[in-house]
Amino acid sequence: MNSLKRAACVSLAVAAVTAATACSTGGGATAPAKVAAAERSAPATAAPATINAAAESVKKAGTSSTTSGTAKGAARAKLGIADITPMGEKTEKVGVGFPIIVVFDRKVADRAATEAALQVEAEKPVDGAWRWVSDRKVVYRTKTYWKPHQKVTFTAHLSQIPGNEAAKDVSRRFAVGTANVSLVDTRKHVMKVRRDGKLVKTIPISAGRGGLIRNGVDVYLTTSGVHLAMGKKPVETMTSSWMGVTDPKDPLYYKLEIPWAVRISDSGEYVHQSAGDYQFLGKSNQSHGCVRATPAGAKWFYGISQRGDVVQITGTKRKLDWRNGWSFWQLNWTEWKKGSALNGKTVMQAT
Known about the structure:
Number of domains: 2
CATH class of the largest domain: Mainly Beta
CATH architecture of the largest domain: Beta Barrel
GO molecular function: acyltransferase activity; peptidoglycan L,D-transpeptidase activity
Low-confidence stretches: 1-19, 26-75
Shape: globular
Order of helices and strands: HHEEEHEEEEEEEEEEEEEEEHEHE
Distance between the termini: 27 Å
Strand content: 25-35%
Pathway: Cell wall biogenesis; peptidoglycan biosynthesis
Helix content: under 10%
Number of helices: 5
Largest sheet: 9 strands, mixed
Protein name: L,D-transpeptidase
Organism: Microbispora oryzae
Domain L,D-TPase catalytic: 180-314
CATH superfamily of the largest domain: L,D-transpeptidase catalytic domain-like
């Protein structure tokens, strides 16, 4: 199995989703170090010698696409994991909306057997299910938000997939931090931040003003829906190059160094400090699509932000697509489970 590399938050390519937002940087979400697009990881540890009930049922049933204990099976390259998101408990704490994103090192031939070999254990269990988003990538999301202040362990029992017995199992433990849930009301121009259920901060904001149509989409509107924080930078360079405007003489051209930027979508939406125009905060929407905040409010929000924190935006006509970044909460639970190879069978177990 390929060794896992240190993780980073980089831009995920979003095919056929929406036009980019004007706050787009041309880069992606950020974390401590860079890796290839859509693949984030950290060192793995040995897995427990246990298997969940779903995996056991698949082993008994067998599969037509794999062989076990044969020369053919031994000769075939082992299925391994190229990347796991988020990073481990020693590197970061994550928010209560965080997904577990697993990228395999090759196309998965038997999704049902592979999914059944993936186990999630939590100190404070809630129902969850996997959804395949490509031939190599599968995402775990819970039915409701994770409970805060706990540890969650993911284990891939790769050696228990028929025909893959020579592979090494992989495990990672995550640390869930404070439940940061923010509600952005673009009509009232305010962001209310709750921590562990308690309202702790109300920040005047200015959202997307609208008025720039690209391929039938008003890209100057902020998207409404359940976003997750994907990464952050103390200063982010934001330019107009995403819409092909690179000439400084063009009226639409801009290149700005923006402080306290927390990324919440792949299309370039952030919560960040307003670059001037403070008179509009709390009064009207004037941004290119991002959520602008006061200097003090943006700095404070940046300081508490964890990847996987919930930022729910309401009040605009532009809907957030579930494939745009980590916007998996845009699908209801029934729709989410339709992407499972095991009909959404829960694999959550208490530790």
